[in-house]
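User: Batch of two.

Assistant: Item 1 of 2:
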Amino acid sequence: MKISRLSPNSLELTAASIMPFRFNLPNGSSGCLISALIPSQIYEWITKSKHFDVLSGDVAVQLDLVSKAHGVKAAEKYFASIPDNLRTYQVYGALLNVYADAKCLKKAEDTMQKLKELGYANTVAYNVLMSLYAKMGDLDKLNSLMLEMEDKGIVGNVITYNILLNAYASVPDVEEMEKLLMKMEADPLLIDWSPYTVAAKGYLKAGDIEKASAALKKCEHKIRGKRATLAVDILLTLYTSMGKKEDVYRVWDKYKRRTKNNNSSYHCMISGLEKLGDLDGAEKIFAMWEANRVHFDVNIPNLLITAYCKKGHMEKAISLIDKLLESGKQPNGSTWNRLALGYCVQNEMEKAVETMKKAILASRPGWKPHFHSFASCVKYLQSKGDTQRERELKDLLRVRGLFPEEFERGLKKYIEIGNRMSEALDETNLELAAEYMCVCSS
C-alpha cells in the first residue's frame, strides 16, 4: 500500500505535507485520520508498520518528522539508513530543510551541493539556502547565491525576492532594498502590499520616517483579497510604532468593516492606542469588540487590565474582571497575573499574594508567572515571617512543574538584590508583544 504522493515540484516537506490522508488498514478496519496524530506518533506508527509500500516521498516526510520529534542527530541517523534507491531529490530536499531549520550552515551547503550534482537544485532549494543565509545575516553569500541563480538561468519567485528584501531591510541596506523593490514593482506577479511593509520597516530602522510613511501609503493602495486583514493589522502596528495616532484611526475607520470580526485587529488597535497614551480610545474600541460579539478571546480584555494596572486604576481592572465572571467568561492565569502585578506596584501585597494564587490555579500548561510579581509576593511573605504561606505559594508552582531549580535560584538572587517593581509593569508589555506577535502577523 502506498501511503502518500508528494508533489515532485516541491522540496519543502513538512509534517503538514501529509495532512490529512486516510489510511485503510490491511485487516479491513476503519481508516485512521492522520491529522489526529502528532508528528512523533505518525513517525513511530509508520516505522513499526509492516503493511506499507514506502516511496521516496514518504521517506522524505518521515525524515522531516524525525527531525521535528527527535532533532538533527536522529534525522541524520535515519537518513543514513535510507537505501540508495530511495535517496531522491525529495529526500535530499528534506535533509536540506532539516539543516536549514537547525542553522547547520556547512551541512546545508554540502547538501545543496549534492542537489546540484543530482541536477535537482531548483528555485525552491535555492530559496531554502537563501533563507538560511538571511537568518545568519550573511548578505554576501545571499547576493552570491542570487547571482548564481541568474547565471544558471534559474528564475526566482516571489519567495526569493521577499527573502532578499527582508534581508536588506533588516540591515538596513536602503540602497539595495530600493533597487530590489523597483525590480519587484516592474513585475505584477512579484508585488502586492506586503513588500511595502517590509520596506517601511527598513526605512524606520534607518530613521527615515518620511519614506516609511510613503511606503505604507503604497501598501494601502494594494490591499485586497483574503490577506487584507493581515495587512490592516501590520499597518496599525507600524503606524503605532511611528507615533502616528491619526493614521492609526484613519486605517481603522477605513477598513473596520473588514476587521470587525477579527480579534487580532482589535488587539492591534487596543494595544496601539494604549501605547499612544489614548486609553479612552482603547476603551471605546474594546466596547466595539464587545458589541460586535466577536469570538471571545480573554487576551483582549487582558490588554485593558494591563493598561489599567499601569495607570493605577485598580478599581477599573477589578470591575472588568468581575464583568467577565458575571458573563460566564473565565479569566486565565495571565489575567490574574497582571492584576497581581498591579497590586505589587501599588504595594497592596496581601491582595497581590491572593491574586497570584488565583493566577497559578487558573494557569494552563506552559504558563509562567510574571517573575517580578511572584518574587515580590515571596519577599513580602518572608518579611512577615509567614513561612507557611510562602511554602504554599511555591508548592502551587511545584505541583505544576513551574518551579525548576534555575527559577528558585533566580528568585533567591532577586530577593537579595531587592525589588525593582517600578520597572516591572513595562516588562509586562514586552511579554504581551511576544505573546501576540504571531496574531498580528498571521
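Item 2 of 2:
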Amino acid sequence: MPSTSCWCQPRTCPGILRRVPAFTVQACQRCVVVWPPCPMPVFCIRPARVSRFRGFFLRGDIPISRECGTRCVKHFIKWHTPPEQLNYQRFLPLFFDGLCESTFPYREFARHGVSDLLIAGTERQIFQTIPMLILPMREALNTRNPDIIIATLNALQQLLRVGPSIGIALVPYYRQLLPMLNLYKQRRVNIGDHIDFRGGRRIGDVVNATLELLEQCGGPDAYLNIKYMVPTYESCVYNRSNGCKTCVYKYKIAT
C-alpha cells in the first residue's frame, strides 16, 4: 500500500495527493503519496528459444529414436549408431543445446542422450568438446526454470565425473556458469526432522552439491574462483578445524 505524507497543519492540501517514487527527494515533500518500488522479477521463468537440437532431430540428422518394447523400461533412446562411434565435437554440444527444451519428447531425448554420450565417451573425446558446452549450459541456466536448471546441473555433475582433467578444464569458465548458481544457492527449505520425499529435486540442494563437486574436481584454484563468484560458498575441501587450511585433494601436486 502507498504511504501518505502530508504535513499541512491544518490540512490545506488538495484532495488528490501527488504520487512520487520511493527513495527519492520528492518522497520528503508535502502532500505526496509514496509508491513502493516495483518488484524485480529475478526468479521469473524466461521462455526458452527453440533449440538447434529440435531442428536437427526433426530433420533426421540425429541417429536416435524412441525405444519400444521391454528395453524401454531402462533405455529411453534407441541409438541407430553406437554412441562411442559418433563425432563428439558435433553431437555432444548439440545434445547439451537441447537441455533448454521443456517440451516432450525433445526434453527426454536431450537429457537421456547427454547421459548416454557421457557414459560411452572417453575422457579425451569429451575434453575436446568442453569449450563448446559452456554456451548451451549457460543458456539453459539463464531460463530460470527450476526443472531445466536441475537437469543442466545433473549433466554438469556427470561431466565432472568423467575424468580428473575435466574439472580443471572447467575452471576458466566459472564466470559464465556460476552467476546463476549464486542466485539459487539459498533456495533451500528447512524441513526440520521431516522426511524429504522430493528425492534431491530441490534446486538449492542440487546447486550446493554441484559447487562442492566443482571444488573437488577443479584443482587447487577452484575454491578461489568459486568464492569470487559465489561469496556465500563454504569450502568442503579445506579443513579449518585447527585454524589452518589443509588440502585434502585426491591427488598431490608436486612442489
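The beta strands are 3-5, 18-21, 32-35, 64-66, 77-79.
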